[in-house]
Recover the amino acids of this structure.
C-alpha cells in the first residue's frame, strides 16, 4: 500500500494502481482541530463510509452535513467539496474513487 500524509490527514491507497483495476480504495485518517481544507473538485465519483469520529462534509449546492460513525456519502464527479474532522478524535473513513484519481 502507498501512503500519502501531511499534518492534517493520512491516506493509504489500499489497492495498487494497475490498468485492470478500475476503482481506488483509500483508508483515510483526518485529524480534528486543524484548519478547514480548501474546496476541491475531483474528476471522479467518490463514495465513503465513516468508521470512526465525525466529519463535516460540504458539497457545493447542498446542505452542509455532519457525518458520524456508520454514515455513508457520495460525491459526484466535478462537484466542489471539502471534508474535515470535528470533535476530539480523528475521523477514519474508507473512500472509493471511480475512476482512480491518485
Amino acid at each position: 500500500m502507498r501512503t500519502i500524509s501531511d499534518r492534517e490527514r493520512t491516506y493509504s491507497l489500499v489497492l495498487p494502481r494497475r490498468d485492470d483495476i478500475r476503482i481506488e480504495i483509500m483508508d483515510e485518517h483526518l485529524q480534528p482541530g486543524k484548519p478547514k481544507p480548501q474546496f476541491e473538485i475531483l474528476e471522479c465519483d467518490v463514495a465513503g463510509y465513516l468508521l470512526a469520529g465525525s466529519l463535516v462534509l460540504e458539497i457545493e449546492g447542498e446542505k452542509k452535513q455532519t457525518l458520524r460513525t456508520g454514515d455513508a456519502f457520495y460525491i459526484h464527479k466535478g462537484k466542489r467539496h471539502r471534508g474535515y474532522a470535528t470533535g476530539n478524535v480523528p475521523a477514519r473513513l474508507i473512500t472509493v474513487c471511480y475512476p482512480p484519481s491518485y
